[in-house]
Automatic annotation (TrEMBL):
Alphabetical list of InterPro entries matching this protein: Metallo-depent_PP-like
GO biological process entries: ceramide biosynthetic process; sphingomyelin catabolic process
GO CC aspect terms: extracellular space; lysosome; membrane
Alphabetical UniProt keywords: Glycoprotein, Hydrolase
Protein name: Uncharacterized protein
Length: 238
């Protein structure tokens, strides 16, 4: 078992909670929305506690008019596989079914690099993660770096004058490690940092785009994190 030691370390710490709390952490539709252990307030830094959660009214002179709409290209879940076989099956049940060893249309998720290139009039690009293939049992650091370099170079070659902003997806980690069960509400005070950054931009009258990978309402997102994320976003939403 690859993560045996990590599993038992996490489980020993979770065992201090009652069954309903453990159920809410591990399973969908099982969380108690009143569970105080997942409230971000319990994990705030001293600096974040000073944030006033009443709305701050600022003139929205920075907001774009209808004639100033931004044109944004979002590229997500490309899952580039350099062993992809053209004319493969579009609905790939398993990752290897789109590879050269299988007889399986170009719509396959793990597509050739050339299939994602287009010429568009855009203001900026958002790369929102999961650029790596689905063959997670063969992940290596060098392999991931090679894919990220190739995709970054490709985007630069075609859109060298267009700003590009990136987020990390759940497939970029080596080894795969997506589940923060010990502190799902504010891991490494990341949520506190987001709140402070949004407060800073709010006070300066600026607008922001929050770029991430897995949507907070998705079943793959832990409920403690999702609930606190919504609290922060709704607090600063214009």
């Amino acid at each position: 078992m690859q993560f045996r030691d990590e599993f038992f370390c996490v489980f020993r710490q979770l065992s201090e909670r009652d069954p309903s709390q453990i159920c809410g952490i591990l399973l969908d539709y099982c969380a108690d929305p009143t569970d105080e252990t997942t409230r971000m307030d319990n994990h705030y830094t001293t600096q974040t506690k000073q944030i006033d959660y009443e709305r701050i009214d600022i003139a929205h002179s920075h907001l774009l008019t209808a004639s100033q709409n931004l044109r944004v290209l979002q590229l997500t879940d490309l899952h580039i596989d350099f062993e992809y076989q053209p004319n493969s099956e579009a609905d790939c049940v398993m990752p290897v079914y789109c590879r050269q060893t299988a007889v399986c249309s170009y719509q396959c998720t793990d597509e050739k690099l050339a299939a994602m290139v287009g010429t568009l009039e855009i203001d900026y690009i958002m790369l929102s993660g999961d650029l790596i293939n689905h063959v997670d049992w063969a992940y290596t650091v060098d392999g991931h770096i090679e894919v990220l370099k190739n995709i970054s170079l490709l985007v630069y070659n075609y859109f060298s004058k267009i700003p590009t902003y990136s987020a990390v997806g759940n497939q970029e980690g080596v080894p795969v490690n997506s589940f923060l069960y010990l502190n799902p509400s504010d891991p490494d005070v990341a949520m506190s940092w987001i709140a402070l950054e949004l407060l800073k931009f709010k006070l300066s009258g600026e607008s922001v785009h929050v770029l991430s990978h897995i949507p907070p309402g998705d079943s793959e997102c832990l409920e403690g994190w999702a609930r606190n994320y919504y609290r922060v976003i709704q607090r600063f939403y214009c």
